[in-house]
Each structure stands twice: as C-alpha cells, then as structure tokens.
Design a protein that fits this description.
Structural class: alpha/beta
Strand order of the largest sheet: 5-4-3-2-1-9-8-7-6
Helix content: 25-40%
Strand content: 15-25%
Bound molecules: beta-D-galactopyranose
CATH architecture of the largest domain: Alpha-Beta Barrel
Distance between the termini: 32 Å
Radius of gyration: 26 Å
Mean pLDDT: 97
CATH topology of the largest domain: TIM Barrel
Shape: globular
Largest sheet: 9 strands, parallel
CATH class of the largest domain: Alpha Beta
C-alpha cells in the first residue's frame, strides 16, 4: 500500500485546491509563476470540474486539462487529481431527477449548489464511474500526477425511494431475517413490528420520537453507502495508475456522517480539512484535537488537505487570520504529524458562492499580506522537510472515540440534550492539552497495550469486544479513566442491565447505579474537591473501591462523584475545566506519563515529532521557554540553549 511518502518524496507537500476553470488561460501562466515563487509543489485539481470535463452527457473535453497538467509538470508542480463527482453537472439532475437526494421531509436537494447526488442512485454511480474511468485512463500515467483525491467531503444523506430500497438490502445483509431486525430495533415498543421487508423505510419525518435503532442503522447505512461510492472510484483510479500513486478522500473534522475509523482503512493517505475560527480562544486546541484524531486514523503522517489562508465565508462573521497565525497553525499541523500543508484555495474566486473566502493569492494579489505570508511558510516548510517527513509522534495516552457510540448516544429521547459527544471529547482533550500531555485517539476495540493511560470521555455504547478490550487493558497494567455514560448500551443501543455493563461496573468499583441526575445548563454539582457540570449520578460504591470525591449538598450529598478501583477510575460528572485538568494530570503522572516539557507557560504548546521539539506560542505576547541542553533551531539556523524566546505567534523547531 503506498503511503504519503511516495507522494512527498521528502518534501512537505505545500499548495492547495486549484480551480483554473474559473480563470482565463493567461492567468494559468501567472499562477505557475506565483506558485514557484511561493514554494508551492502540489495543487489539487479538478474537484469541481465535472461540467467542464463532460459538458453534455457522454461528451468529453480534456483539452484544457491536458494543457494544464503539462504546464504544471513543466513548472515542477505535482498534481493531486480529483474525481469531479461531488458536484454533478445540471444535465444529470435534469435528465435523471432520481439522482437527486431527498431530505427526511421528502424535499428534493436540487442542483444550483453542490453535493446534490444520491449515494444510492444507480444512475449517479454509473455516470460517476464513467467520468472517473476516462479521467484515470487519460492521466493515470501522467508525470505530474502524485495522488488521487476522490470526490470531496463525502457528506450527503438521502431518505428517498432508491435509498430506501438500498437501506432494506443493507439491513437484510446485516440481520438476515426480519425477526432479527425487529429484535435489534426493539419494535415491540409502540407497535412497530415489521411483517414484510417492503414496510421498512429510512427514518423519514414522523409525528413523534423515531425508533432509535432505525435511526442508528440509517447512520451506519449512510456511512457505508458513501464508502461504497468512494471504494468504487478508488478501484477505478488504482487500475489506471502506478502502484506508488496513493488515493485519498478529504474528511471533515469530527463529521457525524462518516465512520472515519472504517474509512481510513480504505485510504492510502488520510487527509482532513481544518478551519478553526481565528477568533476562537481555543482554536489552537480544536486544531490539535483534529490533528491528533487524523494522525491516529492514519497511524502515521497525514495530509492537511484544506485550511484557510485568511477568512472563510461560512460563519456568521468571518474574521481574517491576524499576522503570523496562518504560519503558526500550519507549523502546528506539521508538529502533529502532517506531511502536507494545503489550502482551499490557491486563487481567491471573483465569482460564485465562495468569492469572499480567502485564497493563497488574495484579491489584493501578490502584494497582499496573505500571499507574502504564504511565501514565508513555503520557504520554511522547504527548510524543515528533510527532517520531518515520515517521522512519527509518539503518545502514551489514548482518548477513545467511536462513531457508532456517538450516533447511539445522540438519540433525541436521551436524558439530557446538553450532553454532546464532540463537546465531551473536546473538554477531555482540552484538559490533557492544557496539561501538555500528548494524546492519540483510538477506537474502543483497538489494541491499547502501547498506552500507559486510556481515557474514555463518553463511550455510551460499547460492544462486548470493546468491553473485553478495556478489561484486558487494565488487567495488563494499563490505567483507565471513564467519564459518565460509559458502556450504558450494547451495539443495538439496548440498555445493559444495571444501566452499565456489569463487568465494567465491577472494574470501575460501582456496586449499584441507582439514577442518573443530569444538570441544567447553569446548574453545578458541588463535591468536596471541585464543581461538576452537565451530569451527576446516584451511585453506591463497591466495597473495595475508594471514593476520591464526594457530592456535597443536594440529593446526592455524601455519595461518590469520583471512584477509583485500582488502576480504573470513574468520573460521574464533568469536573470544571481546571479540575478535570488537575485530575487527569495527577492520574497521568501516577501512570508514568510525563508532559512534553516541564514548566511550560500556558500559552505555549510543545510537541515532539521524531527527534524534533516544536515550541508553538499561541499568544500575542512574546514569551521565554526554558529548554534543557543546546539545540539547533531549524527555522532560524541558530544554536539555542537555556532560554528560547518566542515572539507573537512564534515557533521554534529544535533539533538535538
Ligand atoms: C470545504 C470544501 C471546499 C470549500 C471550503 C471552504 O469544506 O471542501 O470546497 O468549500 O470548505 O471553507
């Protein structure tokens, strides 16, 4: 299987989505000049080119792309070539309305935007395969080609009739019999028992709460259908290209619609699009979380497929990046394992829905600050490349996350809509990030033995295999910390007897879990050690468990808030941020996990990648960092030791 290494050949890929069809051909030559000036070595071409490549059904216009591929190759710029299948031309929907998806109310998603295709439509899949086949046959051997990019941000749902038929096929494969489906979905409730497959539908608009099993399976089905679309195109491009050309599709961070653990197994390179809000005080931590997740899915170097050089255009108010922030966040991605730093998009559009979204070449042109900063980043990445590419980030801590559990745990009939899986992941990751502890993410069934500490912010549904895995992890010497709502349900979202799997209760030192006591938005639960938010629980501890914090006052007065049973911990509320940080840092220290560097100022993040130490100042104020020994700063060329000064948004990349 090729990895990113074959595409980078020792360089950090640097560039972005290039949409030359929006510009006259003279501009292409200007583009290549500017790309060379900025150290761009990679562009992603053709993401939205279907209408240009196939102006009428079955016709092909490759002439313009031939000229471009040659031009880029002459300029020494590699091409990540996209299949254009995420935005079908208007003629497809016009001739074949059945290719258009429908929402849960039955409304059609028309052309005029993008991503108006049904993953289940046989006609869509046929046309997508045909254009992919011809594109791959023509360019699979082109010397400019470095990677294939399939579709773009797969994210559509479809509740229409063809999707309903595919859903039934998918369910037949999963369950075999209607009896098994009725059992998994618990259809004895509310008279929902199915007597014939034809009666089964996607969870369309309904009067009141929908069947949670049906909703859960529809999410699984959607992820699988989109994956089928990806795999079909991937297999076509692979047939036409040399074995070293990798294939990817770009993920959206923590996107609910795709089981990205499963998807990553089908990719040669895992890539992600990342757009933290420049005004978000925790933008850097959001970036770190997504980067940790993507690196874990890739099990090594990964690709930052898209970020913004300045503002995006899809928030309510879209702020530019202050001077230095683009560089800082780009180097943060490299520190956390990225071997590619790319943008949406190369040249800012003058028309269309994204004309106010930044580009590497802004409306202000090459004199613009944005382009000047891009040039600096390009030059610095070139300087770092030979030392970073291919190297790994090692972590002693894993944070568990699984899409199926997220889906099951977000059903509308849950006890508190305040409980939100991404927010809980973020809270726990943030606590560890602020304590300067490096984290991977892992699936609950992954091999966890390499980690000293495993934390479980919110794994509401756990399979028997996952529970076995956690038990044997702790038996083998690992330290485990579980948050509330761990292991409540099985893979069908059936509540386990006792409200939590019995073996997990024994592991965590819980004798009886009497009631869950969710908290209102502004409510807190006092304990003798900290304040909890969001949730609390009425628990009796097992005899040999030690109570590490107790609720104070209210209905739960005197009951355990935090329990410990040997190396297994249970936290029945969400401690306030500083308390969660202190709790996890203490447990990590006891488990033998060290911070990346001791004595770091709050605003500085330190990351080790291979033998390099990255220091990233997320603050606007300059700051001094104590670094033991003498090291070489790869960015400045200076020898540094003792105290390293980092300016506003400053970065040092230190080699031994
Ligand atoms: C991504 C997408 C790009 C562009 C970008 C704008 O989601 O892949 O095509 O729309 O967002 O931020």
């Amino acid at each position: 299987m090729p990895g990113l290494g074959d595409a980078t050949r020792g360089r950090v890929l640097f560039g972005g989505d290039y949409n030359p069809e929006q510009w006259p051909e003279e501009t292409w030559h200007e583009d290549v000049r500017l790309m060379k000036d900025a150290g761009v070595n990679s562009v992603t071409l053709g993401v939205f080119s279907w209408a240009k490549l196939e102006p009428r059904p079955g016709e092909r216009d490759f002439g313009w792309l031939d000229r471009l591929m040659d031009l880029l190759h002459e300029g020494g710029i590699g091409v990540v070539l996209a299949t254009p299948t995420s935005s079908p031309p208007p003629w497809l929907g016009h001739l074949h309305p059945e290719t258009l998806p429908r929402d849960e109310d039955g409304r059609v998603e028309w052309w005029g935007g993008r991503q108006h295709f049904s993953h289940s439509s046989a006609v869509y899949r046929r046309y997508a395969a045909a254009i992919t086949e011809d594109l791959a046959a023509r360019y699979g051997g082109h010397p400019a080609l470095t990677m294939w990019h399939i579709n773009n941000e797969y994210c559509t749902y479809d509740w229409g009739d063809e999707a309903a038929a595919r859903f039934r096929d998918w369910l037949r494969t999963r369950y075999g019999t209607l009896d098994a489906l009725n059992s998994a979905w618990g259809t004895a409730f509310w008279s929902q028992g199915y007597g014939a497959w034809e009666e089964v539908l996607p969870p369309r608009h309904a009067h009141y709460l929908k069947n949670p099993g049906q909703v859960l399976d529809f999410k699984r089905f959607t992820s699988d259908m989109l994956l089928e679309c990806y795999v079909a195109e991937r297999d076509i491009v692979r047939r036409h290209s040399p074995a070293h050309i990798p294939v990817t599709t770009n993920f959206m961070p923590l996107w609910a619609g795709q089981d990205a653990w499963r998807w990553a197994e089908e990719e040669d390179v895992v890539s992600v699009d990342l757009y933290p809000d420049p005004r978000d005080p925790f933008g850097a931590q959001h970036g770190a979380l997504v980067q940790d997740m993507t690196r874990s899915q890739a099990r090594g170097p990964w690709m930052l497929m898209e970020q913004a050089a300045g503002p995006v255009n899809w928030r309510g108010v879209n702020h530019p990046k202050p001077r230095g922030l683009n560089r800082l966040w780009s180097l943060q991605a490299v520190a956390r394992g990225a071997d590619a730093v790319c943008y949406f998009q190369w040249r800012q559009s003058r028309q269309g829905a994204e004309k106010f979204h930044s580009g590497m070449v802004p409306h202000a042109g090459e004199e613009g600050r944005t382009f000047q900063e891009i040039k600096q980043i390009g030059a610095e990445l070139a300087r770092l490349a030979h030392r970073v590419t291919g190297s790994h980030v090692d972590c002693d801590i894993a944070i568990l996350h699984d899409w199926h559990s997220w889906w099951a745990g977000s059903h509308e009939g849950r006890l508190s809509t305040e409980v939100d899986h991404p927010q809980l992941l973020t809270a726990w990751h943030r606590a560890l990030w602020q304590a300067h502890l490096a984290t991977d993410f892992a699936h609950p069934e992954h091999d966890l033995t390499a980690y000293k500490l495993v934390v479980v912010p919110h794994s509401y549904a756990l399979t028997d295999a996952a529970i076995d895995n956690l038990l044997s992890y702790v038996r083998g010497g690992g330290t485990l910390v579980c948050g509330f709502l761990t292991g409540v349900a099985d893979q069908d979202d059936r509540v386990r007897p006792g409200g939590m799997d019995a073996r997990l209760r024994a592991l965590l030192g819980i004798r009886t879990l009497h009631e869950w006591w969710p908290l209102d938005e502004d409510e807190t639960a006092e304990t003798d050690r900290f304040r909890g938010i969001l949730w609390s629980e009425e628990i009796d501890p097992a005899e040999d468990a030690s109570v590490e914090a107790v609720y104070k006052g209210g209905e739960l007065d005197g009951l355990p808030a935090v329990l410990r049973n040997g190396r297994a911990w249970y936290v029945s509320t969400l401690p306030e941020p500083h308390a969660l940080r202190a709790l996890l840092a203490g447990i990590a220290a006891e488990a033998g996990v060290r911070p990346v560097l001791d004595g770091l100022p709050d605003q500085v993040e330190a990351v080790r990648r291979g033998d390099l130490l990255f220091l990233l100042n997320h603050g606007r104020e300059a700051v001094a960092v104590e670094v033991p020994g003498s090291r070489h700063d790869l960015l400045t060329g200076a020898q540094v030791g003792g105290e390293v000064m980092l300016g506003r948004y400053g970065v040092a990349v230190l080699a031994p």
